[in-house]
Amino acid sequence: MLSMMRSPDNSIASRVSYLALMTALSAVLGYLELLIPINLFGIPGVKLGLANIVSLMVLYSFGPLSACMVVLSRVILLGLLFGNPYSFLFSAAGGLMSLAAMYVLKKSGFFTMTGVSAGGGVFHNTGQLLIALLTLKGISFVNYFPVLVMAGCICGSIMGILGGIIYDRIDPYIKRGII
Amino acid sequence: MHKKINKYDFILILTFIIISMGFIIIRSLNTKDSDKVYVYVDGKLSYEYPLAQDITVNIEGYNKGSNILRIQDGRAWVEEASCRDKICVHSGQIHKSGQSIICLPNRVVISVSKERDVEYDAITR
Hints:
Helix content of chain B: 10-25%
Strand content of chain B: 25-35%
Shape of chain B: extended
Oligomer: heterodimer
Shape of chain A: globular
CATH class of chain A: Mainly Alpha
CATH topology of the domain at 36-119 in chain B: mini-chromosome maintenance (MCM) complex, domain 2
Helix content of chain A: over 70%
Largest sheet of chain A: none
Radius of gyration of chain A: 17 Å
CATH superfamily of the domain at 36-119 in chain B: N-utilization substance G protein NusG, insert domain
Strand order of the largest sheet of chain B: 2-1-7-6
Strand content of chain A: under 5%
Radius of gyration of chain B: 18 Å
CATH architecture of the domain at 36-119 in chain B: Sandwich
CATH architecture of chain A: Orthogonal Bundle
CATH topology of chain A: Arp2/3 complex 21 kDa subunit ARPC3
Distance between the termini of chain A: 11 Å
Order of helices and strands of chain A: HHHHHH
Distance between the termini of chain B: 48 Å
């Protein structure tokens, strides 16, 4: 009951605890994703982007800097727990590219969360492909690019719609400092 | 409650789909049968085999990982791998120029192409 009566709370402490909560949530979603193998013409690294729902929500509720911290914490956490230096590099590149794209699309003011997330998905995959081109030889760009753009666009849109629904329900509580 | 989707979203999504369709069309126009299998380990060209010859070889990847490459009837595929996810095994068979099988944990890339194509990392047409 006490928390229900609290006034809007924008202190650093409350922000940090919300972001920690979001980081934990996105790390769990990121782990769940690892358990769902998607095989798209044998391209490694195609996944649903569940963790991106959280990045999207943090971007809308707390701003780009907080979203960046949540993405980086998730990448480091998952990298240390389940990954290797290589997969760490891939997820860091994907996560940051996607966040940058989402920030620009959101800033432009034309798109809803669906469009923003679709762009994020496409740039996530493009970032990963760029890292693959830089580190591995013998990969043909034209072979992988269209499939990755298509997958990123479709998964990103779905995650954007989901993210929008969840954001509508959760954001009012975050703004009022209740949960 | 904000709007879930608007016309700009549709335009954006459509643009992405058109771009990828464009690439798919370019790719299908350029596809030719290839005659060589190139194996890259950790970014270096390590082995090459003719696609016409039926063989089974063990490729030693990064960090003592191994992939069993099989070439038969003009197709190449990975039969077995030491890695956890086995994405390379599930990649199926490749035979068209530009196709590749990637095993990230072992840093192995297996690609097929025409012999003279391999000088270039990427070709802009």
